[in-house]
Amino acid sequence: MSGAIRLTLCAAAASLMAACALLPLVSSVSWLVQAAVVVAASAGAGALARRAPLPRPVTVAAQAAVVLLVLSWLFVRDAAVLGVLPGPAAVERFTGLLGEGAKDIGEYAVPAPATPGIRLMLVGGVALVALCVDALAVTYRSAAPAGLPMLALYSVAAGLSGDGSGWQWFALAAAGYLLLLLAEGRDRLSRWGRVFGGSGGGPRAAEPDRPPAPVRTGRRIGAVALGIALIVPVTDLTGPGLLGERTGDGGSGGGSGTISAVNPLVSLQDSLNRPEDREVLRYRTTAPGNSGLYLRFVSLDKFDGTAWKPSERRVQDVPEPRRWPLPAGLATDVPVTPVSTVLSTAEWYRQNWLPLPYPVTGVEIEGRWRFEPEGRTLVGDRRQTTAGARYTVTSLQVEPTAEQLRNAPRPPADLLEEYTRVPDSLPGEVAEQARRVTAGASDDYERARRLQDWFASSGGFRYDTEVESGTGSTAITRFLRNKEGFCVHFAFSMAAMARTLDVPARVAVGYTPGVRDANGTWSVGLQDAHAWPELYFEGIGWTRFEPTPDRGSVPEYARQEAPDPEVAEPEAPRSPAAAPSTDTGDRRKCNDPDSTDPACGGPAASADVPQDPGVFTARTALVTAASALLAALLALPMLWRIRVRARRLGGNGRTGGADRARAPSRGTGPAPAGSAVAGSAEGRPDGQADGRSATERDRSLAAWRELSDTAWDYGITPDPSGPRAGREPGSCGPAAWRARPPTP
């Protein structure tokens, strides 16, 4: 095996060993197999390019192109041209996956599920690091700086993990780096010839069972350095400081501060499409009836046209019992029922928001939790999560009448301005559709109820968890046009349309009540994940509506009192909480592979993702032609190099132009004065100089120049020093290999 191939394999192995530090961050390890495929393809492309040989920048560009092709085949095969060429549709899909991956990383706790977005970010990041390592260590022959991208990869893993990446992953990454350094050292050492060793002082080959002395010394140094790197962090001499934990307000706790929450919606679709319904939490409640409780953990009140997200608000310590502020907008004449609920979450369930009924009036819980008054939510501080939480909640079950909602006064101006704001990017057809649906309504309550019923029954919408996710303006218009989606689309669309009608609206994310056991305990699973709109009515506060068909339950105050001539009678929602169940292991019968229940994401709920208009064949052809032209331009140096090499090593050795000295053919007489061979061949009738013909000298010169250029291609810099550096390029000896011959 040649030194270059050995170094290429070690660079790829070192990159994958460093990538193992990311394994604790994701619940699945299958992404590492995909990363190995991409890294192997990149390494193979680099080996072939260096063997050609290609200029070093072209080699790196060729590897990057191969990485892009393989990523297209792995992640956006259906949108790529011929399955591998990234056209406009593939680029758009890549952008969407990266956006989803960024949201997933912020939403999920470690270990996160390997969603397509997270998988693309992991595989793409490892491929980028491997490309940098290969370029530095193999193409440019500088293995030491190649440790920087590997260190960056490990640092990302350590930063995202809850308690830092384990020492074993650091040891594995460090071992890969040392392996790369040893391979480069062996390659450099082999260029000097046989290793000197032994007491006799003469050159000898290394013993079969014992590595050379420089290799043994390098291994000792590497082992000591690795040991120091592992031991020093354990001592923790610095204490808390720059790398220590920080609270939401930058202190040790207490007081106020901000916790910037991220959008939790990406996990919702993944939870609904799981083949099994894993239990998230259990609770017992004193809520009257058999309807259970909606458990919300965050409200999304900011719509910027790209996505709905929670606002960054001030947080404070959790209030003491009986000192909680009253729910915003709730008047004393509205009927309420105090409810007490005891909840316990699963050990595996980790997230920053605490599931709570709304409006909550008190929470008893251990841990580092902060209170956000506007949404009445609890957010974990200093890596506090819901894993294994046990807590008691008091809340109110608000039961307004339709008359109270209909006669609600106008909300305050500041609240109205904040919660009716819509972005300029929202198409006018959304507001126009809202006005058509609510035409003839006399108050905000009637408008809200008509929007709800239009989505739930009369509008022809279909519940489907397999459609493309999204919460921006484009996703809303696509949903209104295609009329298929899941709870995210229904909730965001109704909230956006309500805002265009000057009705304050936001979106709540949480869980439907779940399934009740025979002993009265409610079980909530992943497939109970849900999103619903909340509309504000002065005197009642934030009020839940249910526009999603076949999910949850419509509140009593939001149901039609009498048949509406303009709106069809809604069907009774099929809620899993509609009747008691004694079997929580077979929730909604979603474990049946032949199930056609739309809530299970079965065959009846599957549909092709609608494609956005605007992607034309002409555009694809133009991008393909531009890509081919760019590839041709990048290949020009290689083609020119091949042409020069062929002419130099051809029959006459001529290279043309200033690259050669034209010499007379054998037997043509003396060389012209001033030529490269005139002085040496002068007076010889056969035109020979030093016993060689002019053609032989020309061939030798061409061969020398090809050898010198090949050395440049492989990164071997000519050394003009030495006693024979100025000699003519036909001579032999070590100095001739180091000196670039002067141009005649």
Task: Please provide a brief summary of the model.
This protein has 744 residues and is of the alpha+beta class. 39% of the residues lie in helices and 11% in strands.
The top-level CATH class of the largest domain is Alpha Beta
How much of the sequence lies in strands comes to 5-15%
Average residue-wise pLDDT? 74
Q: Based on DSSP secondary structure assignment, what is the total number of beta strands?
A: 18
Shape: elongated
Question: Please, could you describe this protein's structure?
Answer:
This protein has 19 helices and 18 strands. With 744 residues, the protein is of the alpha+beta class. It folds into 3 domains: 216 residues, no CATH class; 333 residues, C8orf32 fold (Roll), CATH 3.10.620.30; 112 residues, no CATH class.
Topology:
Layout: H1 3-19, H2 30-51, H3 56-75, H4 88-107, H5 116-139, H6 147-160, H7 167-190, H8 213-235, E1 257-258, H9 266-272, E2 279-285, E3 295-300, E4 302-303, E5 308-309, E6 314-317, E7 336-345, E8 360-364, E9 369-372, E10 377-380, E11 390-398, H10 402-406, H11 413-419, H12 428-437, H13 444-458, E12 462-463, H14 473-482, E13 484-485, H15 487-500, E14 505-511, E15 515-516, E16 522-525, E17 529-537, E18 541-544, H16 617-648, H17 678-681, H18 694-713, H19 734-738
Parallel strand pairs: 12-13
Antiparallel strand pairs: 1-6, 2-7, 2-16, 3-14, 4-5, 6-9, 7-11, 8-11, 9-10, 14-17, 15-16, 17-18
Helix pairs in contact: 1-2, 1-5, 1-6, 1-7, 2-3, 2-5, 3-5, 4-5, 5-6, 6-7, 7-8, 12-15, 13-15, 14-15
